[in-house]
C-alpha cells in the first residue's frame, strides 16, 4: 500500500538567506528536486509555500518550502496535517546546532531542541510525532567537540551566517547524503532509512 508523504524543508525566503546555515532544509529540497529531475517549484498562495508533487518509488509526496519566515513555518503545515495519524507521514528537514557539520540524524517524536521552525510546526499540528531529518551545522574542535555559539545573539549570528568556504565540500557531501536519506524514507520508511543511514 502506498503512503502519501508531506516533506517540508525549513528555511527563510529571500535571496539574502539562500546560503545561510538556517536554510539547509530548503537546500536539501532544491538538491532533491535536481537529483530526481522533478518539475519546477510552484507558488501556492493558500499554503504560503512553494510546492512540488511527485511520485518517489511507489509513494506520492508533496514537497513544500514555506515562504513564511522560519518561526511561522507551521502556517503552511497546519493546512495539510489535520490529525496525529497524518502527522506520522510528515517529514521536516532542518538545520541542527547540536550536531556538527557532516552529521545527519533521522528522528521521530523528539522535542524541538529550541529550533524555532520545528517549534512552530509542533504548535501548529499539536504533536511532536513526525519524522525529522536533522543536518548538523556547527563546527568542531580538533578533539571532536561541537563548537556551539554561546548566548542568543551569537546563536542568531551563527544560524543566519553563510557557510565558510572551507566548509563548502563538507556541506555538498552532507546535502547529497541527506537527499539519499530522504529518498530512502519516502521509498522504504523511517526505520529502514535510519538503519541504513550509516551506509550512505
Which characteristics define this entry?
Rossmann fold; eight-stranded mixed beta sheet; single chain; globular; alpha/beta; 200 residues
Residue share in helices?
25-40%
CATH architecture descriptor: 3-Layer(aba) Sandwich
Q: SSE string, helix = H, strand = E?
A: EHEEEHHEEHEEHHH
> How much strand?
25-35%
Number of domains: 1
Instruction: Tell me the CATH superfamily.
Output: Peptidyl-tRNA hydrolase
User: Regions with pLDDT < 50 over 5+ consecutive residues?
Assistant: none
CATH class: Alpha Beta
Distance between the termini: 26 Å
Radius of gyration: 16 Å
**Spatial shape:** globular
User: What's the tally of helices?
Assistant: 7
* Main pleated-sheet profile: 8 strands, mixed
By DSSP, the count of extended strands is 8
Q: CATH topology, anyone?
A: Rossmann fold
Question: How would you explain this protein's 3D organization?
Answer:
With 200 residues, this protein is an alpha/beta fold. The protein has a single domain, classed as Peptidyl-tRNA hydrolase (Rossmann fold, 3-Layer(aba) Sandwich). 33% of the residues lie in helices and 26% in strands. It contains 7 helices and 8 strands; from the N terminus they run βαβββααββαββααα. Strands 1, 2, 3, 4, 5, 6, 7 and 8 form an 8-stranded mixed β-sheet that branches. A hairpin with a 4-residue loop joins strand 2 and strand 3. Helix 1 crosses helix 6 and helix 6 packs antiparallel against helix 7. The longest helix has 21 residues. The radius of gyration is 16 Å and the shape is globular. The two termini are 26 Å apart. The mean pLDDT is 92.
